[in-house]
Amino acid sequence: MDETQYALVTGTSSGLGFEMASFLLEEGYSVIGLSRSGTEIDHPNFIDIICDIRDEAAVEEMFELVGENTDALHLIVLNAGIFEMAPLVETSTNEFNDHLATNVTGPFHILKHGVDFIVEDETHIVTVSSIAAKKGLSNISAYSASKFALNGLIESVRDEWEHLGVRFSTLMPGAIITPIWDEENEDLPRDQMMEIADFMHIFQMVVTSPSHIQFPEITFLHKRGMIK
């Protein structure tokens, strides 16, 4: 890169966020990573910020810290999220609301308070959604509802910010083997899940694509299809 490019990535403590942040650092970005617990990423161009994106005041404070380092974000990756499996009748209202708070309200806070860091005709906003935003499946009603809502939020903001020349790319992968599955006791077929490397293949293509290209909705999954 000819000049310093800043990327903000949410959910960098592990899994996809950790891998995306690491890749961007290799690509020459200065990366600001957000998580609730911190990360083991150790790089001179990495800024680790503890931030619960569900908390609007915490997000505002975070952007004050970002402003001490840069006034421009060239890439924003909305990745932080939670996933829990349970039948609808066994899903508590608190669990349902927590999915909405983390997977929808969190990105809302990032976009709302990050608008001043948008670089006209340059900033690329990449959202990690899910194939569950296209088709609701049994036992993930809270997660699916939150991802449908997230896609609606992004579509609305894309329309609002068209005059700024912002690129919006939304990734909608099928199941990926990440630490998130370690918390689930379901005997799910791992041979129908993608590896993190598969996801990264698509992510790399998206973020290194020419600046006039965006991917409003890119769906990808294991060739064996969706887990049922």
Protein architecture, described:
The longest helix is centred in the middle third of the chain and has 22 residues, at 93-114. This protein has 5 helices and 7 strands, in the order E-H-E-E-H-E-H-E-H-E-H-E. A 7-stranded parallel sheet has the order 3-2-1-4-5-6-7, sandwiched between helices. The chain is an alpha/beta fold and 228 residues long. 34% of the residues are buried. The radius of gyration is 17 Å and the shape is globular. Helix 1 (15-26) packs across helix 5, helix 2 (56-67) runs parallel beside helix 3 and helix 3 runs parallel beside helix 4. It has one domain (6-220): NAD(P)-binding Rossmann-like Domain (Rossmann fold), CATH 3.40.50.720. The mean pLDDT is 93.
CATH superfamily: NAD(P)-binding Rossmann-like Domain
Low-confidence stretches: none
Overall geometry: globular
Instruction: Estimate what percentage of residues fall within beta strands.
Output: 15-25%
Total helices: the number is 5
* CATH architecture annotation name: 3-Layer(aba) Sandwich
Helix content: 25-40%
Widest sheet: strand order? Answer: 3-2-1-4-5-6-7
Compute the separation of the termini in Å.
43 Å
Kindly provide the name of the CATH class. Alpha Beta
Tell me the series of helices and strands, N- to C-terminal.
Answer: EHEEHEHEHEHE
CATH topology: Rossmann fold
Sheet with the most strands, sense and barrel status: 7 strands, parallel
Average pLDDT works out at 93
Query: Please, how many domains?
Result: 1
Radius of gyration: 17 Å
From the helix content, strand content and strand pairing, which structural class follows?
alpha/beta
Tally the beta strands: 7
